[in-house]
Amino acid sequence: MSAWQEVARRLAHEIKNPLMPIQLAVQEIASKYPGDDPAYRRLLDTATEILREEITGLRRLVEDFSAFAKLPKVEPAPLDLGAPGRGDRAPAAEWQSFSRSNQRIGICTL
User: What pLDDT score was predicted for residue 7?
Assistant: First the structure.
């Protein structure tokens, strides 16, 4: 898992680096057009909006990769799932339940 975390960290770094210059260039192009051609202005505005949305999407992706890279180190421990009486009790305190969309994920925090 740590190898994947390192990949995520590096990928987040490589994606994040060019985002600010791209965003600044898009803003400058949009603001510097002095012409009065309404068709070209609409085209420029549409292209600018698409680029802003995509940059925002890439930023979210970078944040997700960064969060994955910062997950705590997993330390597996043996657990007897067949222990008598285990099924009729509430889940052990070391298990936390997380929800994401319509999925429920259990994570052991031993």
Answer: 87
Identify the H or E element spanning 33: none
CA neighbours closer than 13 Å in the CB half-sphere of residue 12: 18
User: Rounded to an integer, what is the distance from CA 52 to the centroid of its chain?
Assistant: 17
Model pLDDT for residues 43-52, shown as the tens digit of each residue: 999 999 999 9
Dihedral angle sign, alpha carbons of residues 47, 48, 54, 57: negative
Residue that the structure tokens 């802003």 belong to: 52
Task: Record the pTM.
Answer: 0.58
Question: Which neighbouring-strand residues pair with 99?
Answer: 104
CA 14 to chain centre: 14
Helix (H, G, I), strand (E, B) or coil at 11: helix
Q: Which residues contact 29 (CB under 8 A, 6 or more apart)?
A: 44, 48
* C-alpha dihedral (13, 14, 15, 16), degrees to nearest 10: 40
Contact 44, 30 (CB under 8 A): yes
